Amino acid sequence: DPAQSVDTDRIAADPRDIPDPVDWDEPRHHEIEIATTEEIAEVEPGVTFQYMTFGGQVPGPMVRVREGDTINLTLTNESESAMPHNIDFHATYGPGGGADDTTIGPGESATIEFQAMYPGIHVYHCAVPNMDHHISAGMFGAILVEPEDGLPEVDHEFYFGQHELYTEGQAGEEGHHGFDFDSMRAEDPTYVCLNGEAYAFTGNGYGPMTVDKGDTVRVFFASGGPNLTSSVHPIGNVMSRYYRDGDLLSEPDRNIETAPVAPGTVAAWEMETPVPGPIKIVDHALSRVVRKGMMGVIEVEGE
Amino acid sequence: DPAQSVDTDRIAADPRDIPDPVDWDEPRHHEIEIATTEEIAEVEPGVTFQYMTFGGQVPGPMVRVREGDTINLTLTNESESAMPHNIDFHATYGPGGGADDTTIGPGESATIEFQAMYPGIHVYHCAVPNMDHHISAGMFGAILVEPEDGLPEVDHEFYFGQHELYTEGQAGEEGHHGFDFDSMRAEDPTYVCLNGEAYAFTGNGYGPMTVDKGDTVRVFFASGGPNLTSSVHPIGNVMSRYYRDGDLLSEPDRNIETAPVAPGTVAAWEMETPVPGPIKIVDHALSRVVRKGMMGVIEVEGE
Amino acid sequence: DPAQSVDTDRIAADPRDIPDPVDWDEPRHHEIEIATTEEIAEVEPGVTFQYMTFGGQVPGPMVRVREGDTINLTLTNESESAMPHNIDFHATYGPGGGADDTTIGPGESATIEFQAMYPGIHVYHCAVPNMDHHISAGMFGAILVEPEDGLPEVDHEFYFGQHELYTEGQAGEEGHHGFDFDSMRAEDPTYVCLNGEAYAFTGNGYGPMTVDKGDTVRVFFASGGPNLTSSVHPIGNVMSRYYRDGDLLSEPDRNIETAPVAPGTVAAWEMETPVPGPIKIVDHALSRVVRKGMMGVIEVEGE
Ligand SMILES: [Cu+2]
Ligand SMILES: [Cu+2]
Ligand SMILES: [Cu+2]
Ligand SMILES: [Cu+2]
Ligand SMILES: [Cu+2]
Ligand SMILES: [Cu+2]
Ligand code: NA
Ligand code: NA
Ligand code: NA
Ligand code: NA
Ligand code: NA
Ligand code: NA
Ligand SMILES: [Zn+2]
Ligand SMILES: [Zn+2]
Ligand SMILES: [Zn+2]
Ligand SMILES: [Zn+2]
Ligand SMILES: [Zn+2]
Ligand SMILES: [Zn+2]
Ligand SMILES: [Zn+2]
Ligand SMILES: [Zn+2]
Ligand SMILES: [Zn+2]
Fold first, then answer.
1. CA-to-CA distance for B39 and B215, rounded, in angstroms?
2. For chain B, how are helix, strand and coil distributed in percent, rounded to 5?
3. What's the gap in Å between the CA of A298 and the closest CA on chain B?
4. Which residues of B touch A148 (CB under 8 A)?
5. Which chain C residues have a beta carbon less than 8 Å from that of A231?
6. Is A136 helix (H, G, I), strand (E, B) or coil?
7. Residue A277 touches partner C, C-beta closer than 8 Å
């Protein structure tokens, strides 16, 4: 099929677009609004796909609160939508993590309120009955519940999300890629994306993220799935403090090269940058990197 | 093929059927008898399969002892069986974890005795040459070796086992499903089961497990495989203390949403239940949940 | 296709061929030379494959240094080669972990020098654009950077590497197996090897490794991939101290039966041997053991 006209120039979330670190020490109340959208965008130049999103981006906007804060979330399903959507926060106790109370048809809104009781970094995602399809179409993001004592200060934070696209085409085949339920059932994706696109944060896309030599860097890495476990690895670096499975309360692991990040998990880590050059964030199941799109670059600038 | 007549009304083990916690503090001697069976049962209504089991249930009966206890195990292969079977306890040092000394044909018995030297929660399984087939047919379970100081007290414990079925049919296709070695070789299962059936502990099966709001809950989660890694997750909850890979001696991880559980591992965790409603135990590789049967519910009752 | 004539009688690295433990306490300088080769060898009797290697063996030679040491590495691509190669050390900061500065055509050499700044046990591998092919052909190994205080003393150390072969044939099918990019893209391997061959360290190959009853054993286990996560398990034993993902600085996990080892990771563990008999090192995704070659034996000798 020929490529379709796009509804947006870019589906990839900006990895730098993260709320500021928590700088308060009393419980706060947050009013958060997120719209669910359905829009056609490019996976890579010449390849279009019917995305579904939180906030018009993949991954959806990162939410950041402090342990004990209250979140009042209004989810609005755009009137142009064809499907119902909802939201399951892995950061909340209760039915479907909020999904049961937020299932809304096109043009509808729902509001839930919950207290962020357990610190950690967690996934949120759409959880309608065909949730694997909705997540594969882009409906996942991360919520960070900082512990009372916060996180170590760093110079830069980035927010990435890996997930897989199941389509009737082959990676790189120009045209519109229809969704393929058979390959999803077989867990055999066409693309494995970073922030919803193929190779978006390289010279072939929006360019790399940049930091200065000597900066400390923290990465929040959401594994959306719906099915694959990522073997996350920073080429040319090491994860010097690794918060396995988003555990922010235990001592982080040390000098981790590669680690499994199951679908439905957000991992986080901190890196040092003593040497200039690219740090390539990949899934070390390398055929996903070489053949399916899963790579993004943080460029360390300096001499 | 048409569905076959069943040898048992239910293959799914009752998740509540667990030995009591250790309440002794001197080494004990345990006489344990387990029968291996081969029986046709339903995966879901209208779908039959040729199971092989320990004790007529999937997963097999949970064994629970204290570090330093002695286990005298008699394995009996029912005379109606067509195949030899044996048992490999991951909790014991020695050839095949006991498998070499317990390989028995139909109508035979074998007895082994071993001391449970290392605390942890471990898998047992049949380990004949075609062990992947026997495990896929249901032959796995868990043995808990409690540390000298025991485990934290909780209000409820549940015992679940995930494993995958490789058949010539598609999930949901009525009739008898013959075993399919080709899809097993490709690690592309038809069903991914909790306690041997599809959706057994939901309203469509035997109903959910129930606890009262405020109860503390511990789950023992055996990943039988034979091939898939589970990305275990409790929907609407969090694993507040997670015993990764069954390690009961290190400090548990904290507030884990999802974690990888390799085939041949038993993980365990504790949860709090401050909010009523269902907690859905899933593999967060969600196509296994939506399309292949892998979900069971713990209902938190109360206001 | 008929089997081809071999360039070497054996591609499997000797698991005992490991540099001695660090016994120095001041920073050292190491001159290391590794040749990249392309050679035909047997996967199992009667089955040939076009390997690519570091040092003529799979996995490549283990490098062992102390935190703070300097490595001066010369990589030489044999003149008989058809392809360019390079080397990415997961143990070094900088572009491609060294790959950018070592890409060499047939007959060329390149030298890099770097300081081993972060302790841990890490993978190295070829990282040319088709790196998944080169790794599948055998181009991976391990570098151990010992912490300042070293590792616990043990009686025996072994070095194993798991990786997968993607070929146009079926496992066990005699003849020459051409490389199959389609099955690599689908992550559906023909063989899953230990040290590059099928069942090499069993009675059908070079025989088991041997230790004496009561010996302590450490295993370095490199997961080359390029795509599969290993569920590593020692049949008839337990990993009493498990260095998850090669983390040598945190407290090791305790009594781990099975653990995920992502491609691009080296795990390590220590075992006790109180009972004689075979310890079978496997990937507990058992169809890889039963049907694809992934097993090696450490025989515990004694009464
Ligand atoms: Cu939706
Ligand atoms: Cu979820
Ligand atoms: Cu059996
Ligand atoms: Cu086993
Ligand atoms: Cu190469
Ligand atoms: Cu690498
Ligand atoms: Na496709
Ligand atoms: Na998390
Ligand atoms: Na099937
Ligand atoms: Na265990
Ligand atoms: Na093949
Ligand atoms: Na490592
Ligand atoms: Zn409010
Ligand atoms: Zn959705
Ligand atoms: Zn900066
Ligand atoms: Zn006895
Ligand atoms: Zn069996
Ligand atoms: Zn209760
Ligand atoms: Zn030098
Ligand atoms: Zn290479
Ligand atoms: Zn010895």
1. 37
2. 10, 45, 45
3. 27
4. none
5. 225, 229, 262-265
6. helix
7. yes
Q: What is the pLDDT of residues C47-58, one digit of tens each?
A: 999 999 999 999
The confidence score (pLDDT) of residue B204 equals 87
Q: Is C100–A259 a contact, with Cβ atoms under 8 angstroms apart?
A: no
* A12-62 pLDDT, tens digit each: 999 999 999 999 999 999 999 999 999 999 999 999 999 999 999 999 999
Query: Once rounded to an integer, what is the mean pLDDT over residues B132-138?
Result: 98
0.95 surpassed by complex ipTM: yes
* Structural domains in chain C plus CATH codes: 29-146 (2.60.40.420), 156-301 (2.60.40.420)
**Beta-carbon separation of C93 and A284 below 8 A:** no
Taking contacts as CB-CB distances below 8 angstroms, the residues of chain A near C128 are: none
Tell me, in angstroms, the distance from the centre of ligand 13 to residue B159's CA.
38
Residue A301: pLDDT band with limits 50, 70, 90: very high
C156 pLDDT more than 90: yes
CA–CA gap between residue C300 and residue C173 (Å, rounded): 33
Q: What spacing in Å lies between the alpha carbon of A84 and ligand 1's midpoint? A: 6
* SS3 category, A80: coil
> Which residue type does B136 have?
S
Average pLDDT, chain B: 98
CA B166 to chain centre: 17
pLDDT tens for A81-115 read 999 999 999 999 999 999 999 999 999 999 999 99
Q: Tell me which residue in B240, B253, B273 faces A245 most closely, judged by beta carbons.
A: B253
The Cα C294–Cα C135 span in angstroms is 17
B187: confidence class by pLDDT, cuts 50, 70, 90: very high
For residues B212-234, give the mean pLDDT: 98
A-interface mutation test, from B254, B291, B301, most A Cβ less than 10 A away: B254
In sequence order, what are the residues at sequence separation of 6 or more whose Cβ sits closer than 8 angstroms to the Cβ of residue C250?
A: A251, A253, A254, C244
Neighbours of chain B (3+ CB pairs under 8 A): A, C
- Expressed in angstroms, the distance from the first to the final Cα of chain B is 48
Contact C226, C136 (CB under 8 A): yes
Instruction: Please give the full DSSP string across B4-64, using - where no structure is assigned.
Output: PPPS-S--BPPTT--PPPP---S--EEEEEEEEEEEEEEEETTEEEEEEEETTBBSPPPEE
CA of C87 to the centre of ligand 20 (A): 8
- Taking residues B65-88, report their average pLDDT: 98
Nearest to C198 by CA among C234, C171, C168: C171
Give C 136-195 residues with CB within 8 A of chain A: 184-187
Residue C195, pLDDT score: 98
pLDDT of residue A9: 97
Average pLDDT, chain C: 98
Tokens of C195: 């040290």
Distance C231 CA to ligand 19 centre (A): 39
State the distance from the centre of ligand 7 to the C-alpha of B220, rounded, in angstroms.
37
Identity of the residue in B100, B225, B249 whose CB atom sits nearest the CB atom of C286: B225
- Residue C204 confidence (pLDDT) above 90: no
| A47-54 β-sheet, strand order | A109-115, A70-77, A29-44, A47-54, A175-176
pLDDT of residue A204: 87
H/E element holding B232?
A: strand B230-235
Mean pLDDT, chain A, integer: 98
Which of C93, C220, C244 to mutate against chain A (most A CBs within 10 Å)? C93
Quote the minimal CA–CA distance from C237 to chain B in Å: 5
Distance, in Å, from the CA atom of B175 to the CA atom of C241, rounded to the nearest integer, reads 48
Q: What is the mean pLDDT of residues A62-81?
A: 98
pLDDT score of A115: 96
Q: How far is it, in rounded angstroms, from Cα C89 to Cα A236? A: 8
